[in-house]
Amino acid sequence: MSGVWGTVDVGNTSIHIGLFAAADSRPLPAPTVTFSAASHEPDFTSLEALLPSDSVAWHVVSVNRPGQAAFEAWLKANRPGDSCRILAHTDLPLQISVAAPQKVGMDRLAAAVGANAIRDPRRPAIIIDAGSAITVDMVAASGSFLGGAIVPGMRMAARALAGQTDLLPEITVDVGEVPTAIGTDTLAAMRSGLYYSAVGGVRELIARFTAELIGPSPQVIFAGGDAAKLAPQMRIECVTIDHLVLGGVAIAARAAKGSR
Ligand SMILES: Nc1ncnc2c1ncn2[C@@H]1O[C@H](COP(=O)(O)OP(=O)(O)O)[C@@H](O)[C@H]1O
Ligand SMILES: CC(C)(COP(=O)(O)O)[C@@H](O)C(=O)NCCC(=O)O
Ligand SMILES: [K+]
């Protein structure tokens, strides 16, 4: 064994991979190496060179079965000595207070594990994972996952606009410059609508989640491909942690080893 955890987050757009030193004892460990591939027909060619020659213990959370199958097939063909564990909710050090925990996306639950490692233990947390979909989830001050909300991500919404109209093109919501709200042509109007509806939707959900709780105000934690676009518009204190999900998976790997 190389003393390396391989962690994998198979989302609907990207497969995110991180290597962690098994000896990393920080509350939320940070990856030493990261790699990403598209979930649809992923190319892992340049992953090989990043991996140690000794065997790696892989821990996977997945919400996209074809992407997961492609990773498992690559591992079998290229890294036959490695172990691979596809995590279920029961593998996470997390209390899940919903009726059907097995139906909750493992990326949402792994993010909650990551959030629990960094939040003030007296305060609940709201986690926004802005990827293919945007999920806004709540963990109680006790650490329990309470559930949340799921909305289309910005790219998904942009594709829906283009795909279900005759005249609208597909755009990328690239906010190098924050768009003006009053769009004066089609593209500007789409850019504004896509961006500010995502911003406003997340803000409304944060406000409503906060209002449904009693006790200290929640900490707000962003992750995912569009986190950097959304977080600056929240007008409340929030942090962005790129490795929230992978760090949560590494914590699960660490907890599983400790209990064996
Ligand atoms: N270069 C890019 N390629 C794809 N998506 C991007 C890119 N830059 C930003 N995005 C945004 O990030 C989202 C994907 O984020 P990610 O966290 O990887 O998603 P997932 O976890 O669903 O796979 C896309 O839906 C899109 O809105
Ligand atoms: C909500 C999601 C589609 C988000 O996926 P992502 O944007 O990370 O690709 C995923 O977590 C999922 O498929 N969840 C299953 C249903 C649920 O969480 O209740
Ligand atoms: K997401």
TrEMBL record:
Q: Which Pfam family is an annotated match for this chain, by its short name?
A: Pan_kinase
Cellular component GO terms, alphabetical: cytoplasm
The record's catalysed reaction(s) read: (R)-pantothenate + ATP = (R)-4'-phosphopantothenate + ADP + H(+)
InterPro entries reported in the protein's UniProt record: ATPase_NBD (IPR043129), Type_III_PanK (IPR004619)
Which major enzyme category is it?
transferase
Where is this protein found?
Cytoplasm
Q: Which residues bind ATP?
A: 9-16, 132
Q: What is its EC number?
A: 2.7.1.33
How does the cofactor bind to this protein, according to its record? A monovalent cation. Ammonium or potassium.
Residue sites binding substrate per the record: 105-108, 186
Cofactor(s) needed? NH4(+); K(+)
GO molecular function terms listed in the Swiss-Prot or TrEMBL record: ATP binding; metal ion binding; pantothenate kinase activity
Q: Where is the active site?
A: 107
- Which terms are listed as keywords in the entry? ATP-binding, Coenzyme A biosynthesis, Cytoplasm, Kinase, Metal-binding, Nucleotide-binding, Potassium, Transferase
- Its pathway? Cofactor biosynthesis; coenzyme A biosynthesis; CoA from (R)-pantothenate: step 1/5
Residues noted as binding K(+) in the record, renumbered to the chain: 129
On subunit structure and binding partners, the annotation says: Homodimer.
Instruction: Give the record's family classification.
Output: Belongs to the type III pantothenate kinase family.
Protein's job: Catalyzes the phosphorylation of pantothenate (Pan), the first step in CoA biosynthesis.
Q: What HAMAP family does the entry give?
A: Pantothen_kinase_3
Its name, as the record gives it, is Type III pantothenate kinase
